[in-house]
Amino acid sequence: MTALEHTVTRDAVETATWRASGLVTQVTVLAVRALRPVFLDPARVFFSLLQPLVMLLLFSQVFRSVADTPLFPKGVSYIDYLVPAILFMTATTVASESAVSMTNDLRNGVLARFRSMPVRPVSVLIARSVADLMRGAMELALVLILATLVFGYSPSGGLVGMLGALLLALTTGWSLGWVFLATATWLRATENVQALSVLVVIVLQFASSAFVPVAALPEYIQAVAHVNPLSYGITAARNLSLGNAPDTALYVTLLICGLISLVGAFTAVRGFKRG
């Protein structure tokens, strides 16, 4: 056997016996890859944290008089009413940014290279979801800390209630992230995905119980608020932070999160495999 034949035979054997890494390894490596640009870009971190703080400052001043209306819950300050909503707004914003990041990867050729490698499509999607979940957890935790230190946020549910509200906002944002990822894998164009994401986020955030009680909204917006999953999530998070017992809103929120996660993940994988 010549040297060339020996080399070809050895390469063929190595190719035949080579195995792809496991799902956990792929997800870990790809999630770190997705997170690295976030932490290497201080400006991106700064503006990501600045946005919820500006919202907290503006909305706590603009809507503060709502606390004096008859429909507002008695014995609750407006800042205690508002902070759970800001947690959900931050979580949904992070979720919508998942779609933009995915379209960028689709356009810059990174995912095309992944397809030429033994990388499972679901690994790419789960890694993006995990990376944004971790980024969202960091942002929500900082929002809670700064709201407590700067704005005097001190709900009657204490630290346990605040953590419950944070986890519920994080769960909701994570499940919505799958819907946005599905949108990205089917629409592909960053401009279209961004425009649709902004529209959806605005409707979800403002046609809800985020800033005023639903009963205080115009009737046609109440109709939207009653079917808006964020209304149930924010109400449940508010109850947890105020130390109230878990109610129907919490169970409805968890059920909705489970359903949209399953549908979103299935649709995202189908869209990703279209090539």
From TrEMBL:
Q: Which domain of life is it from?
A: Bacteria
- Compartments in which it is found: Cell membrane; Membrane
Bilayer-spanning residue ranges: 45-63, 75-95, 136-153, 159-181, 193-216, 249-269
UniProt xrefs under Pfam families? ABC2_membrane
Recite the UniProt keywords alphabetically. Antibiotic resistance, Cell membrane, Membrane, Transmembrane, Transmembrane helix, Transport
One GO term describing the cellular component: ATP-binding cassette (ABC) transporter complex
Membrane topology for this entry?
Multi-pass membrane protein
Q: Where is the ABC transmembrane type-2 domain?
A: 43-275
An MF annotation (GO) of this entry: ABC-type transporter activity
Task: Give one GO biological process term.
Answer: response to antibiotic
User: Which residues fall in a coiled-coil region?
Assistant: none
Entry-linked PANTHER family? DOXORUBICIN RESISTANCE ABC TRANSPORTER PERMEASE PROTEIN DRRC-RELATED, TRANSPORT PERMEASE PROTEIN
Q: Per the similarity annotation, which family is this? A: Belongs to the ABC-2 integral membrane protein family.
User: What protein name does the entry list?
Assistant: Transport permease protein
Which organism is this entry from? Saccharothrix ecbatanensis
